[in-house]
Amino acid sequence: MPEEIEIRLLLDAIYLRYHYDFRSYSPASLKRRLNAAKLQMNTETLSALQDKVLRDPQVFTRLLQFLTVGVSDMFRDPGFFRAFREQIVPELRTYPSIRAWIAGCSTGEELYSFAILLREEGLLERTTLYATDINPEALRKAEQGLYPIDRLQAFTENHRLSGSRCSLSEFYTAGYGFAAFDRTLRKNVVFSDHSLATDSVFAEVQLVSCRNVLIYFDRSLQDRALGLVKDSLCRRGFLGLGSKESLMFSTHAPSFRDYVASERWFQRC
């Protein structure tokens, strides 16, 4: 179909011009996001959008907001974080220092969830957190640590259900309609542009959180991403995936064992 050809040509153009590779993303998700971008950016066809993208980097920056995964909630799927707190933190305590990779961190909700939990458990000071995403604007927002105050009710309830014994309000100050999270939470955070589609391993870590990222990839890109995760994790390191994600069909599945299967926690063999 003409639209499918237009999508393929647009993705090729993005890769050749800006070195962002969306060619192995889920076709259904891409089609939906690109059509939304086409409407919002007042272009009649994807071919017209491609022409703008090739000639104006600012147009590509706008398009990137449509192509990358949007915001999440802090402590999203509280059972995931409760399992981390109760069953994985005791293992992490045995390490003199901890390195954790939050892959596809978007605007930082997942990052701050881990930072707060690690602070509560007395581990944040000896942890280096690598927060990566392909979207520079999302990384900028993550570094700011500012979230609209109307999102705090959901954040607070999720935090409570994660097994915390204190209030989320201890970690932020509110004003002018926003909550500003304590800057010490990101003292040991390295923010970096990194693509699971094109980049390589950059560190050995004990923990990887790669949640709700794989669902946007096709099977071959899922396998590539999981290969990076496998090569990044030390032996007996931990991998957390999203509630709808699995290792079941990956060629890398034999390198992992279920740790808390119900909450999508796995351990590197």
In short:
With 269 residues, the chain is an alpha/beta fold. It has helices at residues 2-18, 27-40, 46-55, 57-67, 78-92, 109-120, 136-144, 152-161, 219-232, and strands at 98-103, 127-133, 146-148, 172-175, 178-181, 189-193, 205-210, 233-241, 256-260, 265-268. The longest helix is centred in the first third of the chain and has 17 residues, at 2-18.
Mean pLDDT: 93
Lateral arrangement of strands in the main beta sheet = 6-2-1-7-8-10-9
CATH class placement of the largest domain: Alpha Beta
> How many angstroms separate the termini?
45 Å
The gyration radius over C-alpha positions equals: 19 Å
Order of helices and strands: HHHHHEHEHEHEEEEHEEE
Spans where pLDDT lies below 50 across 5 or more residues = none
According to CATH, the homologous superfamily of the largest domain is Vaccinia Virus protein VP39
Structural class: alpha/beta
Major sheet description: 7 strands, mixed
Shape: globular
The CATH topology of the largest domain turns out to be: Rossmann fold
The total number of structural domains is 2
Percent helix? 40-55%
Fraction of residues in β-strands: 15-25%
Count of individual helical segments: 9
Q: What's the number of extended β-strand segments?
A: 10
